[in-house]
Amino acid sequence: MEIPPKSPDGSEKSPQSKELLTSNTASTLCISSRSESVWTSASRSKWDIYHKPVIVVSVGAAIFLFGIVITSLSCILTTNQKVYKMCGPAFLSLGLMLLVCGLVWIPIIRKKQKQRQKSQFLQSLKSFFFNR
Where does the record locate the signal sequence feature (predicted)? Predict the structure, then answer.
């Protein structure tokens, strides 16, 4: 039975780290990476790509409209007018902030998708030329 060699500092490495050190294949790199890999070509639907910014925009628009309603209530109602005047602008600013963040997030995702497509193309060219 073979005894695994110990490292110079005396600590033993896990079998998973030994495998990662000894294997240089693309599949090991793909498994060990946390982010989405360029080697996977699974197509994702538009909803899978854009669901987070769409939710942020929707929530931001709802909070913004709620702030408009509360601010307009401060003009119409005379009871609790100070509360409406304090809460209305707070909801307006929070909703506007979420709305703008979601709207800015969408072009960022589009740019990343284009970069990912270019990267996949370059990766396929590289594998075509170097794997012959």
Answer: none
Number of domains in the chain: 1
The verdict on residue 35 lying in a domain is: no
Tens of pLDDT along 45-98? 888 888 999 999 999 999 999 999 999 988 888 888 888 889 999 999 999 999
Run of H or E including 64: helix 46-76
- SS3 of 110, please? helix
In the block, tokens 């000894």 appear at 22
Give the distance from CA 119 to its chain's centroid.
18
Contacts of 76 (CB under 8 A, 6+ apart): none
Determine the structural domain holding residue 102 and report its residue range.
Answer: 67-107
Q: Does any domain span residue 6? A: no
